[in-house]
Specification:
This protein has about 260 residues and is of the alpha/beta class. The protein has helices spanning about 15-25, 35-45, 60-70, 95-115, 145-165, 180-185, 190-205, 210-225, 235-245, 245-260, and strands spanning about 5-10, 30-35, 50, 75-80, 125-130, 170-175, 225-230. Helix 3 packs parallel to helix 4 and helix 7 packs across helix 10 (about 245-260).
Length: about 260
């Protein structure tokens, strides 16, 4: 059965890969992004509707959902994929923190606030978020990313615990390195903390294609799992962290030292 889907951050990277995978399944997808030209071009190629706007702000979320209602007749799946990776080291300023919190966390909250009341066991919906392995572990170099992605996973867990048996399926995508423009930006970073942040992502595990991340997310949704882990080793690390946090921290310190050296 065809689903009516919305994917944010869909002009490229993981978001576009998710949109492409959904369209390949026969779903209708509204692609949303801040970049009007790129999201329009992507949507036209896929022959799907599009929306350009700030989907982290409440007015943008309201407009996006209204557009989906007009174009699709409702929403069966919402993928809150848009995210940013900025703010490095303890010197990350108030703007970096505020923007990271809005895009990486509150965009999810604002969308869920509008959508969850629509869904029920009779008319279920899927709410998926693109978080990060950093949301389960941590992110060297970037406190803003580490904290906000942890919060994104925490919100997904809360949403699942509160509404998961009431018609709202929740999934959280938590990859390590993915070959996207966001990841490629680290190649030109000059700030030591930014280099550490990007370097830790590049060396922690295999860098995968966005299509692989999208596939794992949809598999998790199909199987009714909360966590979608394109890098299975993240689950092992997460378990080790819970079993002996101090030992895990010591390992992260050694990893940081190796990168700084």
């Amino acid at each position: 059965m065809s689903r009516r889907c919305v994917v944010t951050g869909a002009a490229g990277g993981i978001g576009l890969a998710i949109a492409e995978a959904l369209v390949a399944r026969g779903d209708r997808v509204l692609l949303a992004d801040l970049d009007e030209q790129r999201v329009r071009e992507a949507a036209e190629r896929l022959q799907q509707p599009w929306f350009a706007g700030d989907v982290a702000a409440e007015p943008g979320v309201t407009d996006l959902i209204a557009r989906a209602d007009d174009e699709l007749g409702g929403i069966d799946m919402y993928v809150a994929n848009a995210g940013i990776f900025r703010g490095f080291g303890l010197a990350a300023d108030e703007f970096d923190w505020s923007l990271s919190w809005d895009v990486n966390v509150m965009a999810h909250v604002r969308a869920a606030r509008a959508l969850v009341p629509r869904w029920s066991t009779e008319q279920p919906g899927v709410f998926a978020v693109t978080a990060s392995a950093a949301g389960l572990l941590t992110q060297l170099g970037s406190p803003t990313y580490s904290v906000t992605k942890r919060a994104a996973v925490g919100f997904a867990e809360w949403l699942a615990a509160t509404y998961g048996d009431r018609g709202v399926q929740v999934a959280a995508l938590c990859p390590m390195g993915v070959a996207t423009p966001m990841a490629e930006a680290g190649q030109t970073a000059t700030d030591p903390d930014a280099r550490l942040a990007h370097g830790s992502v590049a060396t922690a595990g295999e860098t995968i294609a966005p299509e692989d991340a999208a596939r794992v997310l949809l598999e998790a949704i199909d199987e009714g799992r909360l966590l979608a882990l394109p890098h299975p080793e993240v689950g092992t690390m997460y378990a080790h962290k819970a079993q002996d946090t101090d030992r895990w921290i010591a390992g992260m310190q050694r990893f940081r030292g190796s990168l700084e050296a």
